[in-house]
Structures are given as structure tokens and as C-alpha cells.
């Protein structure tokens, strides 16, 4: 990074190029907001047609501005942008926001002009937000470099702790407005537009370091630089700032829409999902979940465990909440017996086990709610609480009584996150906000909030130190004899074997005589496989012979396989692989890697054989993967049951499998540029203590590597 | 049913026993509502302490009432209920609502008294709603037999078409209030309480026949009579009234809460889920989904297909909607090219493929929305539409412009369901309602509404005529030789074979000599299995010998197996089963039945072997199952891929499998009382055209059957 984003997010001086005295115009709105919401820095309107705008001196060009300019807003027609930007460079402006559209989003010509902006920015140490962007604002500083209409009528909520980054201005404006209706405040709002320079990852990094921001909320359609995004996630985690992301473009159709909407490249959604989980980012799937979870992170204390106490005025909603608590990975322990007894004394008709149903009696006993909550939470057996109050929020009397109770409980148990659920109107919503109580109208959404806090708590735990495997002195290209980027089973296994990954006992025979010698050495029966870099699907071509039992069989087999290859056009004969037969009781697994265009090498593990395709039971991580992480991957598989003691079957050697996955992942990481795809399939897992063996393998190198090989 | 529910839901005369002049009291509230909301029938307050209440003559007891009483409300302390009910019987009252609590929900004593009420009601042709219930109301008739507070301040929405049945009064009140906030109206509201007589199924049946009800919404915790509930579902379907259900008690913890909340027995949730799907009931999982879908069914036209057009002012929300449309089983076809061209002419910067993004330009071109929508919908390529308008709903100007456009489109395309999505305040919500437009604040929820309409459309298709299989003249008890309720493989297969279900070739040998004879007849190799009704897990006991190749082996095998059984305490020796070995290429499946305590015989199909437990890949239906339904079951399985042509493998004989499942289901249905559980596992499916064979089977009879066998 050539300069930091302080000048953008927190400038001491702002020039508005294309400034207008009309607050309804794009060039007038920022000035209006800056004045209205009390920006304390210097403001320089720039417009050759005015001497003065709203009592501020107006300058003909930015060059005439007397002082330094931290941030220049460019609100001009597209054709003037490039030359104006050059003037900004001359003026040594630190950063610019370009509102103007007509760049990469409209096609090649626009893209070229945008690329020029990018190049100039890099060369001249000036940062660009946009073009084609709605701008940004910093609420605490009253800094509004945006033409969004969302601030025309209502001010933003003050004191918010959520930093909000959006790749879409319209989406961001919508979410901002919705959040404001619910009195949820943001510290910053930034729409990144075409991301010619500053992207979402840059903004996350800035907000991770920002003292006024506790939580980072992001809307993204796709990242161009996966590595940078991961670094931003890691920084946020280190700074203990949770991130909640809404990423769209999940399905193929959604992705197509994403590509026509922005110029960004959209990676496969499962990879994003993996990256988010691996780096502790909470992924929301709907707008409701997005703002609910951001609010939970910013307004509730961290939760210490998964035990939820449910207080309800409706048995029915209590049962529904109980279902949803369990479905979201939380727990609903029974109230301790002594507490139950005391609650029953208070109200014999109450349900006291958890959910705790105070019934409609709550309307006649004003302290019932606080008495129940106090008894239950004091037991120390619960980490969070949900209070369902029906439509009490709509009735002034009951609302005031309940709020009194809730405040008492909040004061007494400040460490316990509490979400109140009740129907609301604008007045009662405001009252809850002013009292510092978190309220939602829907019970299901309250459970999601608590569940997100709990998942987050686990994500924020310090990362385990990565086991650094020793650097192997292996040169990929020394091993490969052919010039094809697609490697045979033999070549692929030669490579993995260099990394101490156990493979089947096997030797490549170049002649009939060698084949027999090797078979004797390995021991009968053997498998024979014809190797040709041009024929990778051996079985379909009839290049696999199993259970060959004697020298005569080996001789005939060798010649048969060689003949098939020789008769195949443009196929080179590499040799015949003489291989041991595996007969021990075992489980077939699949271990592989795939180079994602955004995030790089991803490691995959799953059940092998035909079942993987039917059940899509695959776990994924970004490489490298420690053995601990590999264990987590195996645990994620539904089929992991089959690897354990099961129906009287002994367990399989999961430890050896994890060790293999980890070694493989470090190998892939070492050659992250060179290896395009690798499959160890099947990887045979024997009974506990008996290890693993790669029975077949395939590897495909990057096209660039092919050039090296030639 | 001894009398219909007309007197309850639509009475011409109502007596209120325990009536009070105080509208805040339980006995006063119904009278207050009846007067306030204009009930046209006769009202008889009953209370010995008053001559008159609110200008109506008050009677000492119901016996003094001069005319007939269709409905009596009992609002008295528990101890007076039974005697009062007896007086109602004497007065020949048609139906009663009992508000009073203190019955089955408080324990055995209360249960006994409730049982007396039930008995008296049946004997005297009088219907009871409750006890322990909030009552009911009929909006059109101004008939309020409830003490719920939800009508104290605000009237219900008039003209609603949703009939709402709830097993929980508090839940019902909450949903009613929430719906009213969104201007969603109900035709009826009924809370069934302890269901001593009238239950949810009765209410569904009444509402299915009711002319003012188009949609039935139910909250349930559990049904006691599954058969009756299914009949109610079938009646509603026949009357083309969609049902949306929110059923709680899904998880074990939820179910425990359900049991402590009501006296109802809660069946396993997967069975409920199956029944809902099988009988065309839409299951909602959250309160939001519940009211959204009920609203969609009641206010939108039926949808003719799955093709959705998305209109949006935010590209980002457009992508999100595209994702969700696909995830919900809907389609998002591209706009026809000629239409795209015309749209581009209107607005070059628009996205015109679908999602259709009008961009913020919509603010400057007042007819842009209607012009876009008209062009697109006129193509005839779309069945429904979603219009996302951001926060337009909060700004009076833009709101009015948009509503004008939407009304024009609604008038022009009345057959196309249209959901508008925008942020709202109470005033704008009201405006949408008054204009007859369906609006929601959340895009995801709008997709769910359209998706529910589409699923419903398919569910409402006429049911295929059931293939009635011929009645077999089979007597279960003739076949069974032992006196145990648990049948051996041999006995179980003897039974299924009577129903033309193919089983392995096999004969039960009682002696060594017979065993050899049979083996010769079947052909070597054979399998030998020791049969004892007391030993059902044969493999674990070593009672299975495979691949027995000659007479000597058969002799030795017979004696070996007999010895194991003879040496097992309390095990009867039934014989040794001599069985063919199956060697052809095949797939192992699992076919079974399970008697659910609520809904009776459920048929299950899944992948056999160890995988079923790991992947829980099972399809379920209530018996009987036609071959068409069996085909649907197979299609539901993830593993159905493995039965089809797959990786060059030929397909397996799915038709024969479906035929087997159907025959099995009819057999189970015939013996629905007698058979507790049956497993055909594995059922071997051969290659296409080669059929199926049951390789092993187990059956367990109902305990009652055991008595017959003895």
C-alpha cells in the first residue's frame, strides 16, 4: 500500500470538484451533508461558475485551493474525470472519491480509461475510491463524501460501532436505511464501486484498525485478490473485530447476474464459503440476518457458552424457540431443580424447566419476569437469554413494566447477552434503543443472533500455531520425464512419494523382462497398468489388469498394454506400472486439490468410489492444512461415521489419513503456482494402526509449467 | 361427528355463563366484543348477581333463557364447569366454549374431569371447544366468543379470507396481532385448548367447507388422531383451499417442551413432515414464513409456472434475489431478445436480462417501472413478478409514483402474482393494503411467497387415482408357526411371498437330509442360515454360512448351525434355511415399514448396507403407495443417481423396485393393525429388466397379535 486510507476515511480537508449550491444535485449533496452534519475540517468547493457556494469560497480549479487537500470528491461528467484526476495529482491530493460512472461497468473503452486511473494512482501515491461509486461517510466526524439520498431527511444514528463496506451502493443504501429504522448505527459507510484502486479488503483493513469500529459488515459480489482479502480477515481477527458478510452470486444464475453487474470475477461459491468459515467470518444469507447479526455483534456482550435460557409468555413460541435453539447448535439445559422449585412457588401454573413459561399471568404480576429471570440466571447455568413478550411492545403499560424488569436484569447480569422479542411500533422500538436493550420482532431471528454470537466466540479464539513442515529439496521438474502438463499415475505418485506420502509398492517396467523381475520382487498377485501421459482415464481404455498371478500373465499383460498404447494415436508409451494388490480390509477415500482463481490452492477430502458423486460429501480448506485441521475436515464429513467403529467394525486409521492430508497440502502449497489439480483417488485407509496408501493418483500442472517442461 | 360445527362458528344465539359487566374481566370481554363489533344474533348474559348487564336481561342460570342457545360460553372457575355443562345439556345447548383451565393440563385429576366432559358431550350430541382455551371468533359475523385481549384496542381487519386454527391461544394471539400490523385479515380465529372434543382436524374440516375462508392457517403441537387430520387435509384439497401449517416440537428438546405444554402426544417430526408433503400441506418453519405464505395464498392469484421476473433498483439485491429464486426451485429465464432491445432503447444503462435493473434512474423517469414491467410481462414468458423498490416506501413522492405504476401493471396482468418489496412505515403499509397490493419489507421473504404459491399450485393438482390391488386371501396367522411376535427371516419371507414379492429361492430344512436335498435342488453354491424366532441378529450369532459348495459342506453346516441354536438358552430351532447365492451385479436397497402411533403405517425406502446410517438417505410415505408414488420416493433419494446409468454403469431395475415397494405397502396396509415393523433388507436390485429379490427380511407383529398366536 503506497499510502494509508486515513486521508480518505478521516480527512482534515475536502475539496468538492463539480460542487453545486443545489442540495438535490450530485455535486451539491456532499456539501449539504458536510454543513448540515457539522464536519469540522476545511471544505473547498470547486466550480468555475461560482465565487462562493453556501458562504464558502469557491475555487475555479483545485490548483487554486490555498491549503493541502486530503480528499477530493470528483462529481463531474465522465469525460472530465481523467484530466481532473491529473490536476489532483499535481495538487498532491492524498485521495479522491470518483462518483462518475462510465468506466469498466460499460465495456472495454471505459475499462481502458479506468486502467489509466489505476496506473496513475499507483505511480503518484494517491488513492482512489470508485469510480462509479456512491462514496463514503464517517459518522463520528460528520464526514460525508457521498451523494446518496439516504441522509436527506434523517440523520444517521450517532455512536454506532458497525463499519459497513458495500460493493453495491444501492444495496448499501437500502441496508443503511433499514438499519436506521431499527436504530442500528454505523461508524462508517463505504461503497467501493468499480474498485479501480481501493477494494473491500483495503476497507476491512482500515476498519480493523479503526478505534470507532467494533464490527465490520460487508456486502460483496466477488473479490479479485483472494490473498489480500484473507489478510484483511486475519487482521480483523487479530484485532478481535468480528466480520459479518453477505456474499451474493451463490448460484449459477446469481453469478451470471453478478458478472453483468460489476466487472469483478466471481469464484465458485463453495470456495468462498470455505474461506469464510476457515478465517472466522460470519456469512449471512439474507438482509435480515445480515443486520441482525451485525447488531448482535455490536450491541451484545460476547457469549461464553451455548446454554440458552428461554423466557416466554406463550408455551407455543417456547416450543418453537426450543426447536430453533437446537437446530442452530445451541443447548437448552433444564433449569436446576432447586430453582424450579422456587419458581413453582412463585407461580404454580408456570412451566419451569426451560423454556420458562410465565403464561399470561405476567400481566397481573409486574415483577414476575424479573423474578423468574433473576432466579434462573443466578444459577450460573446459562450463557444467554431470550425473552419472548408477545405483543407487550404495542401496549404502553405492559411495555414500561417489562422494560423496567429487563433493565434490572441487564444491570445485574451484564455479561449475559439478552435479546427481547416483542411486536413493536416505531415508538416502542425507539424506547428499547434509548434504554440500550436489544429487541427483535421475530423469535427465530433472536435465536440466530445468539447463535451467531456463539459461533463468533469460537472463531475469535486464537489460531493454533501452524506446524511448519520441513522444506523438502524437491524439484518438481526433475521428476517429470514427459513434456505434458498432465502427469501419469506413475509420475504423480513419484512426486507425492518425495513428500513422504505412502503409495502402493510399484515399479515402472520399460520391458517385458523388467516387468517380470519387478513382479517377482513385489510378490504375486500384482496389478499391471499401462502408462501414457496422453491417456489419463486408464480403465476406460482397458489399461488396467488386476490379479495377475504368474510370470506368464505378466509377460502377456505387458505386451497387451503396450500394444494398446502403441496403437493409440499420439500416445507416448511411458512403461507398464507393476503394482502390489491391496487386499486388507480398507475404506476408499479421496484426497485432492484444486486451484481456485481467486483464493489459490484448496484441499479436498471425501469418501471415495461412486458415493462421492451421489452424496457430494466433501470437506474443503485452503492449503496448507495442519493435521488438526485435517481432523476437522474428516469430522465434517457425513461419512466420517464409516471410518469409526461402526456396527461392530473396527475403526480405520484416521490419524494416518490426517497426516497424509496435511503432507499433501504442504506439498501443494509449495507448488501453488505450478500444480493446477491433483487427485489421490482412491487413497486407501486401513484399519487403525495400519496406515494409508495412495492407490491411484493424477496431477495436472499449470499451463505455464508446460512451457518449462518443453 | 354427532353434530356439525355451524352452531359453534356461526351461532344465532350465545349465552355467556359467568358474564360480567366489566369489560376487563374474562367473563366480560366476550360481551364487550359482541356489542362493540356488532354481533346480530341474540345474546344471553348469565349471572345470578345481575338483573341486567349492559342493557341486556341477565339470567340466573341458562335454564331460564327463553329461546334456544346455539353456543354457550363457560367463563367460570374450574369447580363449577362440570355441573354447568350438565345444565347446558339439559337446556339442549348445541355447543359450548369452555375458557376455564385446570383440566388435563394440570395432571391426572384434571384429566379425569375432562374425560367426563368428553363422555357427556358424545352421549348428548353437544360439542365442546376447550377447556383451557382462548375461544374463537368469526369476523364477518361479529361473533366473538373469546377473552383474548387482542381486540381491546383495535378491531380486526375486515374481509380477510384466512381461517386460523391454533392449538395455543398465546401463539394465536401473537400471530393475529402481527398479521393485523401488516393488514392481513382472518375470516375466523379459533384456539382449541385441551381439545376434549373439537380438535384442529374438526376446525380444518369446518373451514374447508366455509364460504368465507379461502386459506387455512394452522399452528399445531401434535395431533392425537392422525387419520382424522389426513381426512381434513384431503377435504381441504378437494375444496381447493390451501393449508399452511406451523408445527412445533421438531427436535427432541422441542418435543419435550411440547409434552409438558399440552397433553397431546407428539409423533416423530419426520413423519409429520412426510404427511404434510404427501397431502399437499405447506409447512412453514418460522412465524414470518407462516404469515407471509398465508397472505400470499389469500391475496395473490394462483401461479401457473415457475418463471419469475425480477425488477430491481439495486443490482446487488437483484443478484441476491436471483440466488434465492434458484435455491427455492423457481426459474429465472432471460428476457426475450426483442424485449431486451426495447428496454435498452428506453434506458441504455439498465440491466435487461433478468434481474431487470432500472437503476436509480427510476427516480427521474416516473413511468420507467411500469414501462419495464409491461414490456417484460407482455412477452408471456413469466409467471410471477417481484419488484424491489429499495426505500421508496418511506418517501411520499416516490411511493405514490410507484404505486401508480404497480396498480397499472396489476390491472393489466391480473393473473400474474406480483409482490412488491420496499421498506415501509405504518402509513405506507396501509396505503399498499388499501390499494390491494401485496408488499413485504424483505426480498428473501418475497421469494418464499412466490415459491409457496408455485409449490401449492402443484399440490392442488387432482390426486391420481389409486391403483387398488386385488385383495389377497391370505391369513397372516396361518403362515406363522411360532408363537413369537418376532418372525424369522423364513417366516417373514413366506408372508411377503404370498403378496407376489420376489424372494431368494430357499427352503427350510428340518434335517441334514432335507438340507442336502434342497441344496441339490437349488444348485450350488448355497447359503445356509440357522432360523430361530428368538435369534433375529443371525450374523452376530454366527448363524450365516455363505458359499457352501457341496453336500458335505451342507451336512456339516446344518449340524453346526443347529448346534449353535440348541446351545442357546430359550431358543427354538425352526430349521436351517437353504438359500440360493446371488452373484449378479446388483445394488442393495432397504425397504421397510414402521407403525407411527399417530399416523399409522409409514413405508420407507433407502440405500442398503452401511451407507444408510451414515447418510440417512431415506424416503417415506404413508401406506399404501402406488408404483408412481414409489417412483417419486426413489427420485427423492440422493442415492437414486447410483441406480441410474452412472459412470458407464448400466441402470438398475427401478421399475421392479417400485412394483415391489407398492406391493409391500399394500400388504402392510392390509395388516396395518397387526404388523408393527417390517424390514426387507437388503432388497437386491439387479440390472434393468432383471428384477429384484428380497435377500433378507424381518417382521415384528403387534403385541396384541402375540396373544392370538399363543
UniProtKB/TrEMBL annotation, chains A, B:
InterPro entries: Acyl-CoA_Synth/Transferase (IPR051538), ATP-grasp (IPR011761), ATP_grasp_subdomain_1 (IPR013815), CoA-bd (IPR003781), Ligase_CoA_dom (IPR043938), NAD(P)-bd_dom_sf (IPR036291), Succ_CoA_lig_flav_dom (IPR032875), Succinyl-CoA_synth-like (IPR016102)
UniProt KW Cell wall biogenesis/degradation keyword: no
Keyword Transcription in record: no
Superkingdom of the source species: Bacteria
Molecular-function annotations in GO: acetate-CoA ligase (ADP-forming) activity; ATP binding; metal ion binding
SMART domains cross-referenced by the UniProt entry: CoA_binding
Domain spans labelled ATP-grasp: 493-529
Keywords, ordered alphabetically: ATP-binding, Ligase, Nucleotide-binding
Pfam families, alphabetized: ATP-grasp_5 (PF13549), CoA_binding_2 (PF13380), Ligase_CoA_2 (PF19045), Succ_CoA_lig (PF13607)
Family: In the N-terminal section; belongs to the acetate CoA ligase alpha subunit family.
Protein name, UniProt field: Acyl-CoA synthetase (NDP forming)
Annotated organism of origin: Neobacillus bataviensis
Top-level taxonomy: Bacteria, Bacillati, Bacillota, Bacilli, Bacillales
Amino acid at each position: 500500500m503506497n499510502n494509508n486510507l486515513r486521508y480518505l476515511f478521516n480527512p482534515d480537508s475536502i475539496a468538492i470538484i463539480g460542487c453545486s449550491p443545489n442540495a438535490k444535485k450530485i455535486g451539491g449533496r456532499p456539501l449539504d451533508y458536510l454543513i448540515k452534519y457539522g464536519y469540522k475540517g476545511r471544505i473547498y468547493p470547486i466550480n468555475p461558475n461560482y465565487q462562493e457556494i453556501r458562504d464558502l469560497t469557491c475555487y475555479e480549479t483545485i490548483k487554486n485551493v490555498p491549503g493541502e487537500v486530503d480528499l477530493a470528491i470528483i462529481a463531474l461528467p465522465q469525460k472530465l474525470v481523467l484530466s481532473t484526476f491529473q490536476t489532483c495529482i499535481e495538487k498532491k491530493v492524498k485521495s479522491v472519491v470518483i462518483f462518475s460512472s462510465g468506466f469498466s461497468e460499460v465495456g472495454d473503452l471505459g475499462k481502458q480509461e479506468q486502467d489509466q486511473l489505476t496506473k496513475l494512482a499507483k505511480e503518484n501515491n494517491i488513492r482512489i475510491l470508485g469510480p462509479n461509486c456512491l462514496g463514503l461517510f464517517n459518522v463520528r466526524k460528520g464526514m460525508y463524501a457521498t451523494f446518496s439520498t439516504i441522509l436527506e431527511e434523517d440523520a444517521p444514528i450517532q455512536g454506532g460501532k458497525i463499519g459497513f463496506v458495500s460493493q453495491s451502493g444501492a444495496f448499501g443504501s437500502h441496508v443503511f436505511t433499514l438499519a436506521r429504522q431499527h436504530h442500528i448505527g454505523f461508524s462508517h459507510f463505504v461503497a467501493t464501486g468499480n474498485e479501480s484502486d481501493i477494494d473491500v479488503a483495503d476497507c476491512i483493513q482500515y476498519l480493523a484498525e479503526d478505534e470507532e469500529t467494533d464490527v465490520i459488515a460487508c456486502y460483496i459480489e466477488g473479490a479479485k485478490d483472494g490473498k489480500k482479502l484473507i489478510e484483511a480477515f486475519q487482521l480483523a481477527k487479530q484485532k478481535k473485530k468480528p466480520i459479518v458478510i453477505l456474499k451474493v452470486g451463490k448460484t449459477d444464475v446469481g453469478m451470471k447476474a453478478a458478472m453483468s453487474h460489476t466487472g469483478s470475477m466471481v469464484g465458485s461459491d463453495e470456495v468462498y464459503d470455505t474461506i469464510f468459515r476457515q478465517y472466522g467470518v460470519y456469512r449471512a444469507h439474507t438482509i435480515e440476518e445480515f443486520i441482525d447479526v451485525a447488531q448482535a455483534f455490536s450491541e451484545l456482550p460476547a457469549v461464553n457458552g451455548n446454554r440458552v435460557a428461554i423466557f416466554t409468555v406463550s408455551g407455543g413460541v417456547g416450543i418453537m424457540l426450543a426447536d430453533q435453539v437446537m437446530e442452530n447448535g445451541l443447548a437448552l439445559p433444564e433449569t436446576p431443580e432447586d430453582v424450579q422449585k422456587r419458581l413453582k412457588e412463585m407461580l404454580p401454573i408456570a412451566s419451569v424447566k426451560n423454556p420458562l413459561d410465565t403464561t399470561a399471568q405476567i400481566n397481573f404480576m409486574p415483577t414476575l419476569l424479573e423474578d423468574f429471570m433473576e432466579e434462573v440466571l443466578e444459577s450460573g447455568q446459562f450463557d444467554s437469554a431470550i425473552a419472548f413478550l408477545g405483543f407487550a411492545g404495542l401496549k404502553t403499560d405492559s411495555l414500561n413494566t417489562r422494560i423496567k424488569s429487563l433493565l434490572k436484569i441487564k444491570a445485574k447480569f451484564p455479561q449475559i447477552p439478552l435479546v427481547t422479542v416483542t411486536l413493536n411500533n416505531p415508538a416502542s422500538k425507539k424506547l428499547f434503543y434509548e434504554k440500550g436493550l436489544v429487541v427483535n420482532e421475530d423469535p427465530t431471528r433472536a435465536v440466530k443472533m445468539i447463535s451467531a454470537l456463539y459461533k463468533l466466540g469460537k472463531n475469535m479464539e486464537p489460531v493454533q500455531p501452524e506446524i511448519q513442515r520441513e522444506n523438502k529439496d524437491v524439484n518438481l521438474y526433475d521428476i517429470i520425464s514427459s513434456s505434458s502438463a498432465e502427469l501419469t499415475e506413475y509420475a504423480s505418485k513419484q512426486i507425492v512419494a518425495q513428500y513422504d506420502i505412502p503409495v502402493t509398492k510399484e515399479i515402472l517396467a520399460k520391458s517385458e523382462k523388467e516387468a517380470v523381475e519387478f513382479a517377482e520382487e513385489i510378490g504375486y498377485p500384482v496389478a499391471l497398468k499401462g502408462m501414457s501421459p496422453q491417456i489419463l482415464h486408464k480403465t476406460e481404455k482397458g489399461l488396467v489388469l488386476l490379479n495377475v498371478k504368474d510370470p506368464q500373465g505378466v509377460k502377456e499383460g505387458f505386451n497387451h498394454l503396450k500394444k494398446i498404447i502403441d496403437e493409440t494415436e499420439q500416445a507416448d508409451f511411458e512403461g507398464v506400472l507393476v503394482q502390489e494388490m491391496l487386499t486388507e480390509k480398507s475404506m476408499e477415500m479421496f484426497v485432492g486439490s484444486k486451484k481456485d482463481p481467486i483464493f489459490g490452492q484448496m484441499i479436498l477430502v471425501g469418501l471415495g468410489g461412486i458415493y462421492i458423486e451421489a452424496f457430494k460429501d466433501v470437506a474443503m480448506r485452503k492449503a496448507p492444512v495442519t493435521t488438526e485441521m485435517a481432523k476437522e475436515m474428516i469430522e465434517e464429513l457425513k461419512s466420517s461415521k464409516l471410518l469409526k467403529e461402526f456396527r461392530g467394525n473396527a475403526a480405520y486409521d484416521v490419524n494416518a489419513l490426517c497426516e497424509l492430508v496435511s503432507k499433501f497440502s504442504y506439498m501443494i502449497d509449495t507448488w501453488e503456482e505450478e500444480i493446477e489439480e491433483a487427485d489421490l483417488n482412491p487413497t486407501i485407509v486401513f484399519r487403525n494402526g495400519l496406515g494409508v496408501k495412495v492407490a491411484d493418483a493424477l496431477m495436472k500442472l499449470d499451463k505455464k509449467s508446460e512451457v518449462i517442461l518443453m
